[in-house]
Amino acid sequence: MFEARVDVKHLPGIADPQGATVERSLPALGYTNVSEVHIGKLIRLVLDASDEAAARAQVAEMCERLLANPVIEAYEIQISELAS
Amino acid sequence: MFEARVDVKHLPGIADPQGATVERSLPALGYTNVSEVHIGKLIRLVLDASDEAAARAQVAEMCERLLANPVIEAYEIQISELAS
């Protein structure tokens, strides 16, 4: 069994309204030293696969089909083997 | 300048409807070997601080006040110094 961790970020140049809203709110709370706020998704899942390469390939395919929107998002996959 | 990366996850026992929806959708796409899908937030930001400890303390305070909901979410902070 493998654990996959996928960071989903907006592609450069794609608007990040959630990050922009947080960034605009921070000065009102007294935080004037913060910039470049980006908010993306962190997906974690467990999958059964024969080896790490197979697990990574399947997660990449799932990202393309369901987990991310490749038109506006980039994804980064980390795979770790779970002790059985 | 420091870069902060905050992983925001649901606390154990708190419903994760987004993760549950994805998990239920996967078998219809042919992925029957996936379980424990969790979807959280990944927040990245840049801040100016005197040292790493100060940066970490400020990000933790921002998490408690704005970035996360400590009643239902846990957060994990990673700080790295940016080359100036």
Description:
By secondary structure, chain A is of the alpha+beta class. The first copy, chain A, has one domain: 2-Layer Sandwich (Mth169, Chain: A), CATH 3.30.1280.10. Helix content of chain A is 30%, strand content 38%. The first copy, chain A, has two helices and three strands. The first copy, chain A, has a three-stranded antiparallel β-sheet. The longest helix of chain A is centred in the last third of the chain and has 16 residues. In chain A, 24% of the residues are buried. The model of chain A has no long low-confidence stretch (mean pLDDT 96). The interface between A and B is medium-sized, with 32 and 32 residues. β2 of chain A pairs antiparallel with β2 of chain B.
Briefly say what this structure is.
Chain A is 30% helix and 38% strand. With 84 residues, chain A is an alpha+beta fold.
Attribute tags:
about 80 residues; Mth169, Chain: A; 3-stranded antiparallel sheet; 2 helices; 3 strands; about 30% helix; elongated
